[in-house]
Structure formats: C-alpha cells, structure tokens
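=== RUN LOG ===
request id: a7f3
mode: sequence -> structure
chains: 1
length: 577
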Amino acid sequence: MKFLNLFKIKKPIPAPWEKYYTEEELHFKIPNISLYTQVRKSALKYPHAKALVYMGKSINYQKFLKLIDKMSLSFKKMNVKKGDIITICMPNIPEALISFYALNKIGAIANMLHPLSSEEEIKQSLISTKSKYLIFVDMFFAKVKAIINETPVEKAIYVSPASSLNIFKRSIYKISQIGKYLHPHSSNMFMSWATFKRKSFFAKDIKFPKLGKDTPAVILHSGGTSGKPKNVVIQNRAFILAAKQEQIMLKKLKPGDCCLAIMPNFHGFGLSVLMHTPLALGCYSILIPQFDSRKFDTLFKKTKPTCVLGVPTLYEALIKCHNEKNLDLAFLKYVVSGGDLLSKKTEDNVNEYLKKHNSKAKITQGYGLSEALAAVTLACDDINKSGSVGIPLPGNYIKIIDPATQKIQPYGQVGEIVVHTRALMLGYLNEESETNTALQMHKDGYVWLHTGDLGYMDKDGFIFYKGRQKRMIITSGYNVFPSHVEEVIESHPAVLQCSVIGIPHPYKQEVGKAFIVLKEGYHKLFVQASIKNHCQKNLAHYMIPKYFVFRKQLPKTKLGKVDFQKLKSDIGEDDDE
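=== RESULT ===
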C-alpha cells in the first residue's frame, strides 16, 4: 500500500486565527501511539469510570478494555494480521467499538460501512477493500447472504443489537423482532458473536505488534473529488491529533463528562469526535443505535449529555419537540452543528430554545470532511462569530484560493477552501489519480487537500462556508453525489438518460429529484415501479430520489450539456405521452 508523505511542514503561512491559541497549544506533539493505546491509558487512569452507556446500561473502562483485549485474541486466533482489512457494518452498539479497538490493537484496518447500504454497495465495498472478514448486525443477514459468496470475505460474524443488554431487555428485544427479518445461523461462512468470543479461550502465547501513530487504522467513505464512492485511508495519528485539538477547544469538557453519539460510527464526526475523543479524554459516549428525532427532548432528559453534535435538521427537529414539560438543559456545555449550512434563523431559534430551557450553551458550527478526519474548523465558547464555521483547529491550516491559479484570495473574498492538517488522509485506497487530484503540493511546501467547497476567511481567521463547487446533495446530513445515483438509474435496461438534482425539503434540507428519459418502446406506467425497486437494491435508502419525473428529453445548454439551472426551476410534472 503506497501513500504520500504529507506531513513535512517547511514554513507557516499567514494564519490570523493563531492569536486565539497559546504557543503550547499551537505546537504540541502527537504521541507515537495507537488508538488502542490511547484508550488503554484512559482505562488505567479511570478504571471504574463509565466508558460507554448503551440503552441505559453502563460499561466502565476496566470492563471495556477487558472486552477489547479478549476480542483481539479472537481476531488473532482467526489469523487476522497487521494490515488486514476487516469490515465493520454495524450501528452505534458496543460491539462495533469493541471490534474497532480490538482490530487496532493488532494493527488491522477497520473498514467502517453503513449498515443501511444496499446489497451492491456492501458487495463492492468488500471487494474494493479486499476485506478478510465482515462483522455485521444480524437484522441485515438477508442482504449479506445474497452477496457474500461474490466477495473475498472468509468469514462473516453476526451480532445482535441486544448482545450487550441485560437478560430481561435482551429477551424483550428478541420477542419484538420475531418474524421481522431473516435470522442468521452458523455455517461454514457465518459465525455468531458468541462463538467468535469463545475463540479467545484457545488463544495462548500470542504476541501483538508494536504500533505507532503512522499505522493505517480506518477506512471511511467519501465521494472524493468526482462523486464516485472512495475508500479514505486514515492513520492513527489523525484520531490522536483530533482528541488533542478538541481538548484544547472544548475547555469545559472534563473527565466524567459525556457526549451523545447520535452521529454513526461510519461517519468521521461520529467515530472521531463523539466516540474516540471522549474515550481518549476520560469521558464517556452515550451510544444511540437508532435516533428518533421526534423524541429528542426525551432523549436529552434521560441521558443528560454534556456535549452533542449533529446536523442542522437535527436541531430543527429539537425545537419542534414538545414531549417534556419543564425540560432543564443546564447540563449541556456544547451544542455543535456540522455537515451542512446552519441558517441564521435556525441558529437564533436553537439559541432561544436553549436559553428557555436553562442552558448557558449556544449552538456553534464546525466544518470538516472525511479526507481530513471530519473536523477541520470549530467555533465554541467565546471564539465564535455568528454564521461562521469557526477557526482552524490548532495545528490546522486553511487557505482560500482562486481554483484556477491557486492564488490566495483577499480576506472576505470567496474561493475554494483548501486544507492542510496532520490529520490528512493517506489517500484513496487504490485510487492514485483521485488521490493526486485531491492532495496537491503547493509552492509553499505544504500538501493541501482541495475540498471543492467554497467559502471566505475574514481578517481574524474565521471561515464562512458558502456552498459546494461539486454538484452534491446533502440530505439529513448525508452527502449524496448525483453522478453516482444517475449511474445506478441509467444501468436500468429501460433508462436512456437520467439527471438528478437536489431540491429544498422542509426537514431533510434537500432531497433528490430524478429526471428520467426512457428508451424507445418503454412506458413509465410499466417501468416506474421497476426503476424504484432497482434503486432500492443498489442505493442506500438516503440516496434514493424522493421524486421521479419522466421526460421525453432533458434541457440542454448551448454547449450541449444538461442545463441543471432549468431543471432546478422545473415544476416536476411528467411529459404528456
């Protein structure tokens, strides 16, 4: 696996935001350790403190470390070695993090995959990463069973979301799930979590490799610069750096505090900011496997988190919740929005809601992307300007450039946001051309990540995000790349051409609308259902367009390209036959 050397910094660039940090905060060293070692340090320091809370059940650091160590023995017994890629396809349940850190102890790479991915997406991810094993949640057994023999996977380990619950709750869960999905069974290919755990009993005299910060640790997923799904390879150093940066920024966050993990483990923000960082700092993470926005206020009252991070639609849902009377949010220290633009109206409404419910916190924004392990900038406490996504985290650098010339734009002038950080990805797995497009060496001696996002910087170093160069739809915080959706729809035998745009939605921010031209001899009445079924099989649910409109032809510009501006103003009725 060959990647670029990204982290040799020759000289600083103009950085007006640095006045908000001390010299010590700006020039800290990243310890040469792994993620596992960082969490182990917390476990030795706070053995009886909470590490995770799941469905009301607490797991302390001592027990969490013991479970990780036991599962690392099971993986070793199954011949998992340093550099092997193992896919984790689970919601926010303890077994996902136990597997994640157990693999990290060995030096294996965890490929974090969305459990709601389609059959085809799961198959392609397993093939493209050459995953040796798959660990998945049992309710999606039917999807996995359908494709597993077409992949390089040697063994698939299935886990119930109830595995970490007490006997009473586990029994209730099992009864509630009767008849809802195809249940897995042990075979040559499939193994239960319980059977997998027992492997550790037979693992003796096993040695683990010495690992440092530069060892590849995780594969996250992104559309890259082209919109085609990419496997983003992240080192240990990125997570360790992020934990230190957030400790500096979130000064009110203390050992024993907790973060509400609504964002999933396959999302950079979720895995880094809401799961690893709390564990690295002696805090705990409240795992939410399935979030119900209609009961957000009830969740707050029940869990009392110190810190919550989510997409703007999440907070819009919160202020509409009226389940709890006299809700007291005094426990909230940080409320952060990321993943999409937070409108001024929503910002004001949320702040009014927080004040009304006795919280001194104010909602702030952050900006990031998978290629830089999610968080790049952050606003919090007094380091904030309304409408901004904050300042670069300590040790990060941002330039606003003219995309054509790479010349730095004056303060206040919009250009492309480019990023340098020691948390930069190693590259896209087996995608050298895409990697070289995204990561470019500039004349200043830095390797810069070209984000394709637009924004400007003010004279104090605050970043204001203004939109996307790339044609991308953000729906409920998830990035949807129209080119990928179009490719799937056009693979249907009846479809000649398809263009997908994003249109406003009152709750999800945006949803997809697909404009479809059928091949001659096909009629929408006979193929519409088939096309939708095709999407359900080959796209994650959040990628599927909400609207399907059939056209005889698509509008074109003078250059013969599809005129997306005309599609944006299209009222969306089908052409008459």
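=== NOTES ===
The two ends are 54 Å apart (CA to CA).
Residues 1-5 have pLDDT under 50 and may be disordered.
=== END ===
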